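Dear Dr. H.,

I hope your travels went smoothly. While you were away I took the liberty of generating a structure for the chain from your last submission, since the lab meeting agenda had it listed for discussion. I wanted you to have the full record in hand beforehand rather than looking at slides cold. The sequence, exactly as received, is reproduced here:
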Amino acid sequence: MTGKIKATALVILSILALGALGPASALAEDEITAEEYPAFLEGSLMTHLTFKIEGREATCKVEHYKATLNAKTGIDTFESEYTGCTAKVGMIEVPLTIDMNGCDWDYVIKDKWYNLVCPSGKKAILTAYSSVEQHMKKTPSCEYTVPAQEELGYVEYENMSGLPGDIRLSVNLTGVEYTVSGFPFVCGENGTFNNGTLTSETTVSAKNEAGEPIGVMIG
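The corresponding predicted structure, in token form, is as follows:
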């Protein structure tokens, strides 16, 4: 598929003589490139990912992105996985799981926005449980579904200094659409809303077929 990398999971990536890289720079270019191809990209959180919905706050300690870069491109599609997640209701934290359900994030470098791309009829699902025991029993209290949607911004890309070079992603999405179902006192008002936000900071690195670290950059 032209101009797009398709990975096979959450979530969040993106994204030549690397010896010429010098100090870290924020380049407003339109393509992500690697030192060699294929390049296997991985992203890891620098800070917790936070998703705010209906007055509730969901936080994940681990967000893992994966993609394969076969050539330079202006759009990355990353598969994402989220673990170590909790939802905060008032002062109480409860277990939360995120199932991307086949949905992937498209990173449109030129426009600095994300598209959430899902298979037909699928949505990403956030499930909250009232306690650890209910989580173990798989008895949910709340469900938040997030459908496919486009032009969610804003995403900043920064090439990081050092060899091999990595990319730092600063994500600040607003206007995320979602639907709430469950006990209103715990889950928030039921219905569909478009006031969700998602923030995170992620480092994207790359390896070659031999598993050796290689440089990746915007430019």
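Two observations you may find useful: Residues 132-136 form the longest helix (5 residues). The longest strand covers residues 191-207.

With kind regards,
E. W.
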